[in-house]
Please model this.
Amino acid sequence: MSKKIVFTGPPKVGKTTLRKIFFEGENPSKLLEYSLTPTHGQESILLNLKEKVGVFDLAGQENQRWYETEAKSVFFDTQIIIVVLDSSSPKEEIVKFTKKVLKLRDEITPSSFVYLLLHKIDLISKDKLKIIKDKVNDEFQDVNLLEIAYTSIMKYSFLPTFTLFTEILKLSLGIKKDENEKYSLKFLEYVVSILNIIDQNVVIPKEDIKRDLKLPDKIFNNFIEYLEKMEFLEASKLNKKPVISLTKAGKNYINEIVGKFSIESIQNFKNNIEESKFEEIPSFLGFLIADRNGRTISATEVYEGAFGLFLKYNDEVEKGNELDLIPMFISALEKFAEEINIMDLPGFKLEGSNLKIHTIKYDICTLCLFMRNDVNFNSVKKEVFAWFDNLMETYQDKLKQSIESGNMVYSSSLHSEAKKWLEQMNKNYDDLLINLKIYNFEHVKKLYQKLDELYLKIDFKYSMILEKLKKLKINLMESAMDNNFQSFKDIVKKIKELDS
Ligand SMILES: Nc1nc2c(ncn2[C@@H]2O[C@H](COP(=O)(O)OP(=O)(O)O)[C@@H](O)[C@H]2O)c(=O)[nH]1
Ligand SMILES: [Mg+2]
Model:
């Protein structure tokens, strides 16, 4: 059976543009230059991937028909609904339209996944974007099978949007998406919120917390169960009503760990990871070593200030360095995950759109390696693990000492050795890329641009070559999707041929 993707949204928001660029290989600059004729009814195309994927593009002028008459049958058996909305439209409209789609989804095709794209973010200011993000994320945080993305086909936003569409294609083919990131960032926010609410109220009915946090029952109960198991909470009854309060251990935990996170600091951290200038981030930024409770005992960056530059700490100095929070956060998550079995550990990945963190667990400590998001970690994994294993062995005693005493390790030999290694890793990795021994998204993007340039150079009468170029773009998407290095190399070869 073939798969199905449906684009829906008001008129003129960019649905057809996105479809043409990412599913048909059209040229972004051409599309921006010549306005497309509005879509009538629905236009559909069939992609020939591993399976056939039908892509339906619904005319926005006819939304009343799509949502209120039997024409809604167009949504039957859909794997993915892509809702495109203009990010500059009023918040109320965004919320209203999205709710309408979600209602229809639940009614007609409850298992389909909804991507909400707030599009054309190149046309709005950063501040405005933040306001919208807060509002929309808040409004839909509890909705299942929904992912919200902020997109544009212009400049810096092109790559993340491109990445998103490869994800969408993957999902449409049933290739499972990693849910870790979504869950993990939320996890921290929930734990912090729950413990802070209890702390502030001293004693509080469970129901009140649940209501305040607007959490679904199942998730809320999991959290409470987990916190009780950790002996952070104790349950009692007040006027026959079940209430909870913090235990001594719970209070300590708040003072020592959770108190250092504020919801704003988590949000800031999330935004900072997303906002740093992608091109400037070194492939391997640095690593932290933390004890089993998540206390950082050693930090090494590739050059001084590298973490500060790309993870931009909060100005509130007393709150401590946000970087120190990451291992705590990861360790808290790992404990939680062990309890309720939500993730495949220990290779836990925390991913923002620009950076990713890979954790490696040792007996006495955990290591968090920060990398640029497009680093092809599999290609260097062996080497990285071997080096860290060695480091752990060499410095085991020192690390043990500092874990016991609770102090940072001030070992200049560890630092200088590690810094040299990071420098070398960056250099080696760049060499591998240049020599096409491995590839990453940066390559895909460059090739994509190259194909665009070629497209512009070629006269319209050579339609055969133009078709070839379009096809190559789709192939490029596919090879990025499958991490297929051989087909990537073939594309490079074909481009060279066409270019000569
Ligand atoms: N600034 C900007 N304009 C865009 C973007 N995507 C599409 N557009 C423009 O938005 C207009 C409407 O696009 P179209 O795809 O026809 O919208 P549809 O009615 O939703 O199918 C066109 O002029 C596009 O060039 C974007 O990311 N940024
Ligand atoms: Mg259209």
